[in-house]
Fold this protein.
Amino acid sequence: MNVVNPMKFTYFMLLFTALSYTQNKKSAVILDKEDKQPIEFVNIYNSKDFTTSNEDGNFLFTSNLDSIYFYVGGYNKLKGTFNEIADTVYLEKSIFELDEIIVTHKKGLLDILSDGIENYAFEPYNEKFLLRSVLKYNDSIVRIQDIQGKLSRKTLLYTDDIKLSKKDYKVEITNMRKIGVLKDKKDAYFKFPSFNYLLLNFVPFGIAKDSFELKEQAFDNGSKTKWYFTSTYPKELGTTEGNYIINSKNNAIEYFEINKILKKYNYQTSEDIKYRTDNLRTKIYLSKDARTQKYFINYAKFNTRIEVTDFKKSFTSYYDLEFILTTSENFKEMSVKSNIRENEDIFKLHYRYNKEFWNQENQLLLTNEMNDFIRKIKNEENKMNVKSNF
């Protein structure tokens, strides 16, 4: 009869457990191979884990698997292992076989969008999210806020049968960090939007039926089509332009971008100042869930610039506001218990700071500019105007 030494068996089990959960870690920067510029929103992933690159192209990826894949639209996919990937990753632009650009009628695009409507979820579903908010005042950062949590949506898109309401989103915050000044040098408070407002802005539809010129261009051997749209109303009123990338097989939107320049937007007033929106820019990346076959918003970015002055126009200042939304675990069963007011200014929301979580968080790294701002504001002597949960 064979007798197992319990001490050896215990040692073996401990060793096996340690090896099973060994975490590979890779920190690097991703650049365009041709112009050496950083690439944002690159998917870094394997069959178990994922992260994305920030505006500087930086990322931190950890996994107990050894494989790494890199992919973002417009570039060739790259794969390797943790040991093979260098500290600087270069991605090559895809060489598309482009068909001739064709000026087309508006009905063509609208028909395609209508035919592809079955690709989206029109019933409630849940997902995890990370929302980043950055406010700049005259080109310098003055606020940073990251909110991580769980989100319950009533629908991804709205139709004639699904009406907009105030309870379409339920948000449960699980982690938050924020730091920044409350008021500018003119003693004005910049109001952040609410979750309800932001999530409604991250919708991949944005052109009206009229007043737009459309052009289409096929690529990837006809598997995808890029639709360009440009406003045709008088230039002095402003301009709106952008594009869709649509999967030719199922008519699903895989990318949406819209840029609005508002030249004749009227001022709004608040006490002794007045302000107006100068421009709006939105980018949305969509992916298909393998289990449900439904598309979801993978990454989204919303930017706007606000011009501020007084009634005498004695000064002119600019606020630049940026929001980045990333999602994960889409369509998975999870409990979402709202612990905030979804229609409240998000910078006024309260949640404790978890130092251990944020030290390990790698879904979207802080940029170099953000880290410099945090170090600077923490060292300021007068912190009466600073709001932080750090």
Notes: The longest helix spans residues 6-20. The chain has a mean pLDDT of 88. The chain is about 15% helix and 40% strand. The two ends are 62 Å apart (CA to CA).
